[in-house]
Amino acid sequence: MRYLILLKAAENQLGGTPPPELFAEIAKLGEEATKAGVLLDTAGLTPSAAGTRVSLEDGKISVTDGPFTEAKETIVSYAMYELRSQEEAVEWTRRFLQVHVDFWPGWEGSSEIRRVMGPEDFGAAFAPE
């Protein structure tokens, strides 16, 4: 099963520049997950100031350029894993957040784990031919 893990945090907290040691430890964790064959993709995202929101409300589509001031937290990165269970996704996520505890004291954020649905979740109407 595939799991998408979203990291949410306030933009530019603690000065906004993560310590280089944090990046080194994240790279080690990513290398471990890649060697284990479970990490499919991961990346950081640009700040919301560089983003665009496209919304549908009351039958109308609107486009708004960032930053999005009403958001306390934004999605700052993601990772896509191929794992056996939700519990395994929680463990990889816990390890990722622990690296932040260890190498960026005071940083705060949260992760959301979502299983990616495939054709098997929707029945024959969405099955590949």
UniProtKB/TrEMBL annotation:
Q: Which residues form the YCII-related domain?
A: 1-95
Say which domain of life the source belongs to: Bacteria
Instruction: Give one Pfam hit by family name.
Output: YCII
PANTHER family, per this entry?
BLL0086 PROTEIN (PTHR35174:SF1), BLL7171 PROTEIN-RELATED (PTHR35174)
What family does the Swiss-Prot or TrEMBL record give for this protein? Belongs to the YciI family.
Q: What is this protein called?
A: YCII-related domain-containing protein
